[in-house]
Amino acid sequence: MAGGPPKALPSTGPHSLRDMPHPLAGSSSEEAVGGDSTPSPDLLMARSFGDKDLILPNGGTPAGTSSPASSSSLLNRLQLDDDIDGETRDLFVVVDDPKKHVCTMETYITYRITTKSTRVEFDLPEYSVRRRYQDFDWLRSKLEESQPTHLIPPLPEKFVVKGVVDRFSEEFVETRRKALDKFLKRITDHPVLSFNEHFNIFLTAKDLNIYKKQGIALLTRMGESVKHVTGGYKLRTRPLEFAAIGDYLDTFALKLGTIDRIAQRIIKEEIEYLVELREYGPVYSTWSALEGELAEPLEGVSACIGNCSTALEELTDDMTEDFLPVLREYILYSDSMKSVLKKRDQVQAEYEAKLEAVALRKEDRPKVPADVEKCQDRMECFNADLKADMERWQNNKRQDFRQLLMGMADKNIQYYEKCLMAWESIIPLLQEKQEAKFPVTAVLS
Amino acid sequence: MEQATPDPERQLQPAPLEPLGRSDAGLGVTVDEEAERAREEGSGGDTMTHNNFWLKKIEISVSEAEKRTGRNAMNMQETYTAYLIETRSVEHTDGQSVLTDSLWRRYSEFELLRNYLLVYYPHIVVPPLPEKRAEFVWHKLSADNMDPDFVERRRIGLENFLLRIASHPILCRDKIFYLFLTQEGNWKETVNETGFQLKADSRLKALNATFRVKNPDKRFTDLKHYSDELQSVISHLLRVRARVADRLYGVYKVHGNYGRVFSEWSAIEKEMGDGLQSAGHHMDVYASSIDDILEDEEHYADQLKEYLFYAEALRAVCRKHELMQYDLEIAAQDLASKKQQCEELATGTVRTFSLKGMTTKLFGQETPEQREARIKVLEEQINEGEQQLKSKNLEGREFVKNAWADIERFKEQKNRDLKEALISYAVMQISMCKKGIQVWTNAKECFSKM
């Protein structure tokens, strides 16, 4: 972490910001937006409650205002450390217990969301609500709207196009539940998103539809601000670091796409292999019925192949349910990240255009007009948030892929171990001296 | 066919000159005794050496295969493969082997040998040849007869064929077989001079011919059914196995793509790069491991194929029995009808229809002298017929006895061989599983370092 405001300690239970006297109360610039290098405190919550905080881009505080101590203590309370480990975590969310609801108009699945928190933002220590997919979709749109400078985690796909997938099958519902759980956990882990009001309502409201209907404008300042950025300006050059992120995401998505295709192809080949195995095993049984001394060994081989077939089926199911969806999620993730990058470009483009316009006016006043300053702050805030999120994302991605790929290796190991056990157990059967059997049908007994 | 005097050093006796049906009572006994002795001397599972009755061992190997060009019967150029057969005699005392004979033969000569053995030993389950054309191939293997893998597998199959004959208590003593191993030039002429083609019963080849046999030996009927079913089930097994091999090949090879994409991905990553790259390498190893695995499995398929073809040999023995039984029944029928005719002529009653009887009715009675003459002829025929029936009966019984003895021997061999084949197949599968565990464990470790 670079210099700037002192590194914040993990917060253990911030007071409601409404209660705190603002050190800079009375200062004029409401619009000032500050930020510094990663990780930056996001003061959007403060703004949404009308509090003002002023940290100028160069890191200092406006002259004549609050002492560094109080602003830093405010920062301490507002800023949450990125690396939230188990002990300091104060918000836990779990998605489980899918249930089918059959109504006259439609049938759908709801999931139970259990929240446990010591945060002040929650009136109760524990909540349990039921939500369906469209509620998650609503939450995500709201987050995108209200936190445009941040990377919002992806949702599992809305519709499943491939093949004839049963929306209500156990496997599909379980896969979706895991993805939705992951979605909420990613938000929970985010120091800014986890404090979002929409998120809070999602977790706690008895009836979400009321809030949806009221369309409560819980937009943050930043959300409003970015929303109004006109897209008409063309960015000349992306700053190096964001260009690098853009290139990275492009290649990343490409490689993931290839891996997805390979994984699908492997599953397809394995399923075709399975089909043949299921015909192969029983032929040994048929043969066994003709024989006397060889009957048991042949039957044993048949059973063995049957066991291997079952193991293979388990492998393909696992890969379909656990591996592919996570890959797809990351592809969606990188797509949405690229949109955020574009938005950032727009913000920068607007700023640069306005700055240029001012420069051309050749006015004497060196003072930068307010609206240009506004653009600059907006841009710098965006940059800071994005950089912070990118780093967080990179870390999580590394962990997620390590887990995903280790899981894939594990499943294959388990498959081979099952087959190995089957074949090893049959060796003694094949080797033992058979007592000559005299079944009526067998000829050469 | 020339009758070479048995060479005590060569340890092989001349082939019987007539098919096993005439004056074979003594030979049959001898065969049984010697078959017993062969079993005692442990000619069973040992594939490389053959213990014959004078306690000298010979080793046979088909050691090389060579492409040749030559002119065929129609004076056209053709390409064929020739196989080198080497025979070694092993001195019992010091175990040293001495190369005694070495000659080249092509597949058609092996076929000739087998066809000869089929005619002269109809009561023996004659070992089959490896397939003429590659069948039950999965996509990677070539179906081309000139393909080196096919030629190699055929070489092994031909060697196996010769070893089977050499370890058979009866077949090993055949002179033509001996000459096959020792007399390069002129061997074809020698075989043809036996006139075996003439002795061959064309009815045996006619698969469609049905014989309404009234009293076949039930064991042979059951055995024929068994051999039909065995053929059917092994064919099915080989077909599906080929498809299984094909699919398995696909699964392994696609994993190779991971190697490439992990490598490309690792280029844009910092901490994850090394782990990805090395895991990719293991995926390549995995993909290439299937080639050896499937090659080993071909050996198993070949073992099954041998018994697929053996089923055909089994059926041939059964059909021979049927034919003999049929001939016997026809002869008995014929004899009975002649006796009847004779009786009618003697007593003057006409019970059976005969052309003579009809013409007599139409054109008048015959004279007593004519009748006497006819009775005499019939009596002679009846005598002859009775003799023939007696010998046919004897033939039939001998055949059944000897054939069943060989079938018992074959049964033991089959059970032994197929058990071995299944065990080695299981061992192959175990090895494949262990390799898979190893590769994925290595990959997992690389992933853990990401």
TrEMBL record, chain A:
Domain PX: 89-210
Subcellular location per the Swiss-Prot or TrEMBL entry: Early endosome membrane
Annotated region described as Disordered, given as residue ranges: 1-44, 54-73
Pfam families: BAR, PX
One GO-annotated biological process of the protein: endocytic recycling
Membrane topology term: Peripheral membrane protein
CC annotations in GO: early endosome membrane; phagophore assembly site
GO terms, molecular function: phosphatidylinositol binding
InterPro entries cross-referenced by the UniProt entry: AH/BAR_dom_sf, BAR_dom, PX_dom, PX_dom_sf, SNX30_BAR
Keywords, comma-separated and alphabetical: Protein transport, Transport
Classification via PROSITE patterns: PX (PS50195)
Biased composition (Low complexity): 63-73
PANTHER family: SORTING NEXIN-30, SORTING NEXIN-4
Subunit record text: Heterodimer; heterodimerizes with SNX4.
Homology family: Belongs to the sorting nexin family.
UniProt name for this protein: Sorting nexin-30
Originating organism: Callithrix jacchus
Gene: KIAA1958
From TrEMBL, chain B:
Region listing for Disordered, in residue ranges: 1-50
Membrane-related topology note: Peripheral membrane protein
SMART domains: PX
Pfam families, per database record: PX
Transmembrane domains' residue ranges: none
Segments forming domain PX: 61-187
GO molecular function: phosphatidylinositol-3-phosphate binding
UniProt keyword list: Acetylation, Endosome, Lipid-binding, Membrane, Protein transport, Transport
Swiss-Prot/TrEMBL GO biological process terms: positive regulation of autophagosome assembly; protein transport
Record's signal peptide: none
GO CC annotation: early endosome membrane; plasma membrane; SNARE complex
Subcellular location(s) per record: Early endosome membrane
Primary location class: membrane
Subunit structure: Heterodimer; heterodimerizes with SNX7 or SNX30. Interacts with WWC1/KIBRA. Identified in a complex with WWC1/KIBRA and dynein components DYNLL1 and DYNC1I2. Interacts with BIN1.
Physiological role: Involved in the regulation of endocytosis and in several stages of intracellular trafficking. Plays a role in recycling endocytosed transferrin receptor and prevent its degradation. Involved in autophagosome assembly by regulating trafficking and recycling of phospholipid scramblase ATG9A.
Family of this protein: Belongs to the sorting nexin family.
Protein name per its UniProtKB record: Sorting nexin-4
